[in-house]
Design brief:
two-stranded antiparallel sheet
């Protein structure tokens, strides 16, 4: 553990109960379960390896560095969210299930602050790499492929938010399930949902209206 319990010997000396309390004070989820697993593993490792203490010290420093980076990222996220909420369309954007402050800020950054430069939902979808473009030849037609040039940040915003919405939005879940029932693979179904959400978001911003979840029709009894 980071606080000086990186080796099996240190964990055995501390004991399961004290380790559990140590973890609970630091608000670690499942502290009792984690302490039990660590104590059991430490109990099986009775052979001390040469250089174990030095390796544990290096691991502790690396872990502290990662925790500090996480803290800094959290600060940056809060600052980005604060700036995002100064934008006129922030509340409308985040009303769409799956888009929070961070994804909303990334969205505005990717499109230059507004949709003024996009003449249609198809234009926006193409820029996000979600609208396949024809790549026909003299012999074959109807070949659709992802555009070679698109904004990967914007695509990530729509794809990630689509993934989140499947878990939180009944309408998105129904759309995704429908695509899967048609034989689409998971990734294809998520991309189709992301493409649909481009239309929804553009309409929301055009009409200055927040998102309203569409009520799903109950299935008819057989």
């Amino acid at each position: 553990m980071i606080g000086g319990f990186q080796t099996p010997t240190a964990i055995r000396r501390l004991g399961q109960a004290r380790l559990a309390r140590w973890l609970e004070k630091r608000r670690v989820r499942g502290a009792a379960r984690l302490a039990a697993a660590a104590a059991e593993a430490a109990g099986r490792q009775t052979v001390e390896i040469s250089g174990e203490a030095a390796a544990a010290s290096v691991i502790a420093r690396l872990a502290q560095t990662i925790l500090e980076l996480d803290r800094q990222l959290a600060v940056i996220d809060r600052e980005a969210a604060a700036i995002f909420h100064t934008q006129a369309d922030a509340a409308i954007i985040t009303s769409l299930t799956g888009i929070g402050d961070v994804l909303g800020a990334e969205l505005l950054a990717a499109i230059g602050g507004s949709l003024a430069g996009f003449i249609s939902a198809d234009h926006l979808a193409g820029y996000a790499g979600l609208a396949p473009t024809p790549r026909d030849s003299g012999y074959r037609t109807g070949n659709l492929h992802r555009p070679q040039r698109y904004n990967r940040q914007l695509q990530r915003v729509f794809y990630t938010s689509a993934m989140i919405s499947i878990q939180r939005s009944p309408a998105s879940k129904a759309f995704y399930d429908g695509k899967r029932a048609q034989g689409k693979r998971h990734t294809q179904a998520v991309i189709a949902l992301a493409r649909r959400r481009v239309n929804v978001l553009r309409a929301m911003l055009r009409d200055h209206q927040p998102y309203q979840e569409r009520q799903q029709k109950p299935a008819l009894a057989a």
